[in-house]
Every structure is written in structure tokens, then in C-alpha cells.
Amino acid sequence: MTQNLAGTARPTAAVATPAGAGRGWWRDAVIYQVYPRSFADANGDGMGDLPGVRSRLPYLRDLGVDAVWLSPFYASPQADAGYDVADYRAVDPMFGTLLDADALIRDAHELGLRIIVDLVPNHSSDQHEWFQRALREGPGSPLRERYHFRPGKGEQGELPPNDWESIFGGPAWTRTTDPDGTPGDWYLHLFAPEQPDFNWDSPAVADEFRSILRFWLDMGVDGFRIDVAHGLVKAPGLPDLGTGDQLKLLGSDVMPFFDQDGVHQIYRAWRRILDEYPGQRIAVAEAWTPTVERTAHYVRPDELHQAFNFQYLGTYWDAAELRTVIDSSLAAMRPVGAPATWVLSNHDVTRHVTRFANPPGQGTQMRSPGDRELGLRRARAATLLMLALPGSAYVYQGEELGLPEVTDLPDEVRQDPSFFRASGQDGFRDGCRVPIPWSGTAAPYGFGPHEGGPSWLPQPAEWAGLSVAAQSGDPASTLELYRSALRIRRELSALGAGDELEWLPAPAGVLAFRRGSLVCLVNTTGEPVAHPTEGRLLLGSGPVEPGLLAPDSTSWWAV
Ligand code: GLC
Q1: How far is CA 530 from the centre of its chain?
Q2: Residue 24 vs residues 18, 21, 66, 284: alpha-carbon distances, Å
């Protein structure tokens, strides 16, 4: 099933204009997340693909990002939109071929863009060859040791082996049927039943992932985003939690299936592999941990390079809360010498335009469109704040267009597996995954090659006005705001790397800080605030008058 490239693996051409070479390009990189299903569809089947991404690389170069992280495009039955991998060394035909991946990496490098790919080591697809063999061969098969198979509890083994719940809802265990047709052992899946968890105590699993890392490093990728990096190691004996509603504990407690200390030795081994390759190859952890201090463990000097800052993502548009999370993030990263990261949206949460359009306290999944205008104003201001902070920033495709969440998708088009499982993680993640609009007045708005052609999720009619073509050249557009901000960020050495910022006195609801020659002023209130401004205005998320901060706005000043 593994596809082969013609010829043998060889180092890919170096990146043309390495950003921040010498001091760690990743320390202040702006990394753009491409969700391949929904970015650009070259063959017109309604599903985005790698040739589509490749054709849009010049757009990303011109936007001014440093690197592109691609969500999974590997061979997969798509039970969880590709986060269920059946073959880690093959491209799913839906997305193209390994040759397309190779061409994409090469083109990106020629344009000065780096490529980060998603790695899914917590679980495979249930269609992975190992899991299929484990099922076929039955109890006693050595392949079963690569996953968590256990006999059930109860007289007939009819109850799950422990009380763990799936993040997508329901029990984290599914019972198998033995080759002779009788009910057999259970297997663990922290996510969907189609995503059996690997057993990381198995040397075969560890070996396989080291080999997969090398496979993609040899292909020339610049790094990995590690999916569920906090989940690989489970507490010995798989102990019961003793309580239901476990999802509610995820934010505050260390669980027997998440954030176990044993994960760190895996990342130390991976770091040694990354360091063997030239060109500063990196890894970023998707690690959901109870505190930023625990997140910092993943980015100790001999582990991964970055970790997503989900505490920041989960913070509402509120000056005091933002200041607290900014300070605690910088303080947590300082002792380990890793850059802080800042992120507002991704493929798992409601787009921040819509989060900020709604009242606080609703978490990161919501179905109400809220006050769109307010949400966009705050989102634009939040972007200029994020891009002024020290460290690296992540941009999720479409946020540069100010896209809101699509909150009214009909149930029959939804594909998020958690939507179909009771009491899961809300199940509304499709709303941020709708294909993005590029041009034209009719769907799919340039996402696919033909007007009136398909898109795997329907796009709202209003999106014609939000397309790349519609916004390009309009100085008031969100796209041009991002372009300007990223250009200034590249030009101004005060922005980006480092871990220092100096807070300036500011009234309630306002954040003011200096980084070198830049002053950033943020008004999170709905009222104009009189506040001294000095220096030269570089950029504003809204209208700017000297001495007055517009409601829900951020401005950058050169001093
Ligand atoms: C990560 C991914 C999410 C996926 C889950 C299971 O959280 O971001 O999309 O459903 O892992 O792989």
C-alpha cells in the first residue's frame, strides 16, 4: 500500500530565503495551518487536494507567513477527517500522490516557505494493517501488543475493562469479535472506535514512528505537528477514574490517559532524530495539559520546539484575562528557553470571529452566530495583539479573510465523528472546516475549478464578498490587514522572537506594551478610550485617531 517515489529519497532543495536563519527560524515564525480538505480543490471533486495547495503557495508567500502546517493527507478511511491514518507513508488518493507531496515540498522551499506535516502517533485507523491483523489473528497475536486489547469485566466479559470515556463521547472501549465469531476482548480508543490507541510500551510502535519520522524528514519536510502529543502513554494498569463526565476534568486534572510523564522520553528520542537533519527541523506539540507550566515540559531543550498555547486560545476578549495568560505563558516558557506560541483558531474550535461575537463563558464550541460585526472587530484587534507578542504565531486558513464559523450547517452534511456520538466534545467542528472562498460570485468561490462545482461542505452565500479576490486591494479588508501586519512583523526586529515585553500603564480594559521600538495599544472595551499615543502609527485594526483608542481595536506605533 505504501507508495513509492521514483528514485530514492534525497535531501530536498534548501529553503530559498530562510526566515530567521541562525537563531532558530521557528522562534518567531508565523505558521499557517492548511486544512487540506478545505483549502483548494484542483481536480474539481469537491475535496481539497495537494495539487490545490501547491497551486496556492504563491498566495501564502505573498501573505507573508513563514511556514505551512498541513493537517493529515495520509491514506485514511476518513472516519475523523484523516486523523485516522491507515498508512503513514502514503498519500490518500483523495488528496493526490506521494509525488504531489514531493512537488509541494519542493515548490514551497523554492518560495521560501517551510512545510510542517501532521503526525498522528496516539492512534491509527482501525483499517491500519497492524490492527486488521491483530483482529484477524485473534487473542495471542503479537500484533495485539501494539494496541490496548483487554478482556472485559463482568461474568461474560460484557463490560468495558475500565471506566474511561472517549473524547468523542461514550465509552473509550469497543468489544471485538473473535475469529470464531464469539465476543472477544475489548480495545481502547480515546477518540472514535475507528481510532484504536497504540500501546507505546511496545518497542515495535516506537520503532515504527522513528522510521516514519525519518521517511518524511527524508522527503524534506521541515517539521511535524504532533497530534494528541499528551496521550501516547497511559498510566500503568489503566486504572479507573472513578467518575463520569471526564471531559470536564480535562482542563484541570492530570488524567491516567493524558499528560503522563512517560511521554517525554518519546520526545527526547524524536528530538535526537530531528537534530540529525540539517536545516533546523522542528516539532510542535498539540498537548492539552492542565497548566501552561505542564505544557512547558514538552518544550524542554531536549524535547520538542513548540507547543500550542491552548490557554491563550481559550481566553476571551478581555484585557485582564489576556494580560494574565500572556504573562503566565511567557513565564512558563522562560525557564525552558522555548518560544511562547499564540493561536486563535484551528480546525477543532469555533472560529474566533464567532467566539468573540458571543458572550463569554461558552468555551470554544458554539452554534450561535452572535453579533458578527462585533466579532470581526474584535478578531481583527486580537490578530494585531497576537502578532505583536514575543514568540511564534499560528494562523488558521480563512482567518485572514475574517471568516466566521458556519453555524447553520444542516445535520445531514455534517461529518465530524463526535457529532454522531452521545455527549461528545460537542461535535460541531465542521463549522470551521467549510472550504474557503477564493474568487467569483457563485459557490464554490474558486475553491474548485468550476463555477457551480461541488464542495464537501456547503459554503454560505455571503462568502462571495469575503473571497481573496474580493478583499485583495481593499485597504479596509481583513486580508489586507493581515498582509500589512505580516509585512511589518518581518521588517521590524522588535516584533517576533524574544520573551520580553514591557507593560505600560493603561486604564481598565486597555492593554499597552512596548517591545523595543514598537508600542502596541489594545482597547478591549466597547467604548472609545482616551489614551496618550506617541510616535508614528504603523497599523490599526480599526479607525485610529491620535490620543483616542477606538472600541475593540489594536494599533501599532513606532516610537
Ligand atoms: C486532535 C486533532 C483532532 C482529532 C483528534 C484525534 O485533537 O486536532 O482534529 O479529531 O486529535 O486525532
Answers
A1: 37
A2: 10, 6, 12, 14
| Cα 343–Cα 307–Cα 356 angle in degrees, nearest 5 | 20
Give the number of other CB atoms < 10 A from CB of residue 465.
12
Whether 367 has a pLDDT exceeding 70, the answer reads: yes
* Residue 228 CB–ligand 1 contact under 6 Å: yes
Beta-carbon contacts of residue 201 (< 8 Å; ≥ 6 apart): none
Pocket test for ligand 1, best of 38, 195, 228, 289 (most atoms within 8 A of CB): 228
How high is the pLDDT of residue 237?
97
Cell of 358: 458571543
Interval between CA 228 and ligand 1 midpoint (Å):
7
Average pLDDT, the chain: 94
Take residue 208 and report the three cell numbers written for it: 515504527
Q: Would you say the pTM of this structure is higher than 0.85?
A: yes
Largest interatomic CA distance in the chain: 79
Distance CA 331, CA 354 (A): 30
Please report the beta strands in 154-253, taking only residues with DSSP state E, as ranges in sequence order.
173-177, 183-188, 223-226
pLDDT of the residue at 419:
86
The letter for the amino acid at 109 is H
- pLDDT of res. 425: 54
Residue 184 reports pLDDT greater than 80: yes
3-state SS assignment for residue 478: helix
Question: Which ligand 1 atom sits closest to the C-alpha of 120?
Answer: 12
Residues taking part in catalysis: 227, 276
pLDDT in tens, 22-78: 479 999 999 999 999 999 999 999 999 999 999 999 999 999 999 999 999 999 999
